[in-house]
Amino acid sequence: MKIMSGFSLDLGPVKEPLGFIRVLEWIFTICAFATTGGYVGSTQFTVECGSKKDDVTAHFAYPFRLPSQPYEIPHCNNSKNMTYLQGDFSSSAEFFVWVGVLGFLYCTFTIILYLGYQQVYRESNRGPTIDLIVTGIFAFLWLVCSSAWGKGLTDVKYATNPDRLITACLPEDHCVVKTYPSMGRLNISVLLGFLNLILWAGNCWFIYKETPFHKPANPPPNAEGGVSTA
């Protein structure tokens, strides 16, 4: 095929802002959806009945449909209560990961285009123009999904806080918090989302410089000939 026969590896674009920022986008996009998509956490408290102590652990994981995993609370009156974490925050989490995966695929495609098919990319105005539009759309999507996931993460923290969960204990129970869920990885995912917003939005300028909107495709008619009018 013509496109395959036109492949010519050139690492030069990576040394320019256009290609270098795209590589950074590729890296940080992977980090963003990986830190969210593979998350598994738990929250724990202890029910103390005299000398007897029972640990209660509530597990949760991506995509954060919290009621899907029940946990059992033993009481001091020898009864047990099956309880569920409250809240379904899968929509914001899955949207965030979805944007990350699509961004990764687009970065992979454009990096191959920059490095192997630079002549195809620059031979017409269509390539840079489409690249600018798609990059702008992704910048907007990163803004929306990072904001939504930031709010969703706040709700997840509230729903899994053991200080709140021990309110399900009976009055005769003595419940104390044992461990709080580790949320550092999820906090980083939100920061990576907004970092991707900055990278994708900033890269729009360098792509814009490759389009005919920044510089005319042809020089003005009087620029070369020095024609003067009487």
From TrEMBL:
Predominant localisation class: membrane
Homology family: Belongs to the synaptophysin/synaptobrevin family.
Record membrane topology: Multi-pass membrane protein
Protein's recorded name: Synaptophysin-like 2a
Entry keyword DNA-binding: no
Ranges that cross the membrane: 20-40, 95-117, 129-149, 188-208
Pfam families listed in its UniProt record: MARVEL (PF01284)
Localization per Swiss-Prot or TrEMBL: Membrane
Keyword annotations: Glycoprotein, Membrane, Transmembrane, Transmembrane helix
Alphabetical list of InterPro entries matching this protein: Marvel (IPR008253), Synaptophysin/porin (IPR001285)
Superkingdom, taxonomy of origin: Eukaryota
Domain MARVEL: 13-212
One GO term describing the cellular component: synaptic vesicle membrane
PROSITE patterns assigned: MARVEL (PS51225)
